What we know:
By secondary structure, the chain is mostly helical. The protein contains 14 helices and 2 strands. It is globular.
Amino acid sequence: MQKVPAKRAVFWLRSALQMVRRYPGTFLGMGFIYALIGLVPMLGLLTVVLLGPALLGGMIYAGQFADNHEQTRSRPQFVAMFRAFQGDRRLGSLIALSLPAIGVFLVGLIILGFVMVQMKASGTLPTDIATIQPIVLMKALIPRLLHWIPLLLGLSLLAYALTFFGIARAMLEDCSAWTAMGSSVKAVLKNSGAFLLTLLLILAASMLVMIPLMMVLMPIRALWIVSLLYNTALYALLGPILYFAWKDVFGLDHGDAKTDSDRHEAETVIEV
Length: 272
């Protein structure tokens, strides 16, 4: 496990952007599928939460292959996104890595339910919630949810710390979920500057993309398009970002893991 300076976060993001620009069809296609799944009412959210690490693991795998074959310009296949589903034991570990996100999601639902029960008891929320306009309901809920934000932010940071390096370790090194999560937290603590700067850069880039999209598409009530475009770009970048972070911190210590994509080249790539 290596310690890297905080500024490496800039390198991770820049390298991910270059990789997406080099292979836009592959990575934007993967991001589009991920975003499209998330748009399916209810089922999409559950699928993304449960299978998200496995799909993201495939995108990390594609990033590893593209990086290892940069000189030959061998292109990672789109189907690399589903590498974890191709019959090996990694799928179970990657699904287990969804537990932190599930935990945060459940805590959020419990807090929301608690607040709504309080509002009903005080008479500030009608018994028939279906009759309330969503905007009116949000305006009533937000002030009561504000003091829960620090707790949710803390839990979210913990979930990110458990999976930031963990998904790549489970996918590329075939670690168990528990080993991957434990080592991920240790790596985040050792490289807290790079970890936090990466999250801040992703947040800043997200705002730069989201705000103009919302200004253009909100008047025509096409927020689902905003969500689709934003998540496509986000997840196209996220796989390569996590790959380069893993490579910097763990890759130098695991020579076998670095050549993992080579061992499966015939199954997951096509030569161009």
